[in-house]
Amino acid sequence: MKAPQLRIPPLSAIAPRVSTVNNCQLRWASKRATPAIPQPVPLVPDVPTLLKVLGRGLSQYAEKFPTWNSLFTSDSTQMKELGIEPPRTRRYLLAWLERYRQGALGPGGDFKHVENGEAYLQVATTEAQDRKWVINVPAGQKADGAVQGPDERVRGYQVRGASAITGPYALPLKAGDGAKVQVVEGMWEHRQGIKVDGGERRRTEVRYKKRIAQRKAEIEASRRG
Q: Domain Small ribosomal subunit protein mS41 SAM spans what residues (predicted)?
């Protein structure tokens, strides 16, 4: 009596089937999505002004980005090809572009009235006359009437005393008639910290070498004594 033979199905019958549509979907999903391009704000209406307020010498690269879109669509490799060095400068710029996309802007980023790089601030009162807020007004205009809500006030600026306005880069006007904020180099810059013992990455090595040098000096001093 012959033993029963096992019938092995063809490989095509047991292999998982992946449709062409699914393959296309997977390839499409694997591609990096194009980052969103935010709109300019009145304080920084163009690339040169944005690079100016970010500081760290980025203004010298303004000509590398002829349009707003070209700046916000560039990645680290493209910036390197454009000659933006050193790498930490590229990282700083890319980090700030992402912050801009998220709406995390620096002083004056919420101003609505800016002309020739200058914004004017006035003190306004609420309808209940119980609070004073700082608002941004067009040049030459007064803060007439009460503010309707907190959305009208600008972030980072406060009223001190009767009518003094304090905040980043706020310059008082004559006779206490409000304040002016002017676009200046580095007004949004994140200041670099001072490296201690070679910085975070080299601190252990540098301190180890210092201890060895100190120990050698102590031994040498004891021998001389």
A: 47-103
Give me Rg for the CA atoms of the chain. 30
Alpha-carbon distance 133 to 10, whole Å? 78
Backbone torsion region of residue 203, taken as left when φ is above 0, otherwise alpha when ψ lies between -120 and 50, otherwise beta: alpha
- Report the C-alpha gap between 214 and 128 in whole angstroms: 68
Enclosing H/E stretch for 119? strand 118-125
Higher-pLDDT residue of 201 and 4 is: 201
Q: How confident is the model over 49-102, as pLDDT tens digits?
A: 999 999 999 999 999 999 999 999 999 999 999 999 999 999 999 999 999 999
What residue type is assigned to position 136 of the chain?
N
